[in-house]
Amino acid sequence: MLEAKDINLYYGASHILRGADVSAERGRITCLLGRNGVGKTSMLRGLTGHTPIRSGTVTWDGENIVRMAPHARARRGIGYVPQGRDVFGQLSVEENLMTGFACLPRREARIPDEVFELFPVLADMLGRRGGDLSGGQQQQLAIGRALVTKPQLLVLDEPTEGIQPSIIKDIERVIRLLADRGDMAILLVEQYYEFARDLADDVAVMDRGEIVLSGPIKDLAESEIRRHLTV
């Protein structure tokens, strides 16, 4: 599905990603782990086209999309849930979900019933403003908005950040359910090992802009992973 090879990304003169590789396969959850500031969000922004990549390749279904604009990647099935959720505070829940129509053909511009089956709270709050929701509800809305675009790759940046434990469990359940359907690849950023341990099939551990450890989580030693996560 997705294969990023030898990714180098800069902010000005700062070399943020240094020859980093990451991949995501349909039916599997890949978790990108690492301390704060090691380049995890930059990797996702590079993969989704929101930050230019200096060199390297991003192959999606056999096509190198490294120079493709973010909206074109979205139309090719890449859904992105950014860190901080970025819901439109003055728009209603329904209007926030409808923004996902932008990358769909007009005939497919509808909110799938699946969004409300996965997140029933959204159905009860369609008329409420996005800015009036709790952090956990906003995260559910942000994931629901990405699902409206009918993604084949779902990219999530720290979906558990600032969320109460009960909703974290709901989000974990939804992510696992989406992966188990077998038609979607999921790539998410996390900094807590416990969440990755319970959810991920594969992990890639970052340190100082490089991937230092990767593979199926069952094949990697917990102590080695944790060594790169402790401050």
Keywords:
231 residues; Rossmann fold; 6-stranded mixed beta sheet; 4-stranded antiparallel beta sheet; 9 helices; 32% helix
List the topology elements:
Elements: E1 2-11, E2 14-24, E3 29-33, H1 40-48, E4 55-60, E5 63-64, H2 70-75, E6 78-81, H3 93-98, H4 113-118, H5 120-124, H6 135-148, E7 153-157, H7 165-180, E8 185-190, H8 193-199, E9 202-207, E10 210-216, H9 222-227
In words, what does this structure look like?
The strands form two sheets. A six-stranded mixed sheet has the order 6-7-8-3-9-10, sandwiched between helices. Strands 2-1-4-5 form a four-stranded antiparallel sheet, with helices on one face. It has a domain of 161 residues: Rossmann fold (3-Layer(aba) Sandwich). It is α/β, with parallel strands linked by helices and 231 residues long. Helix content is 32%, strand content 27%. It contains nine helices and ten strands.
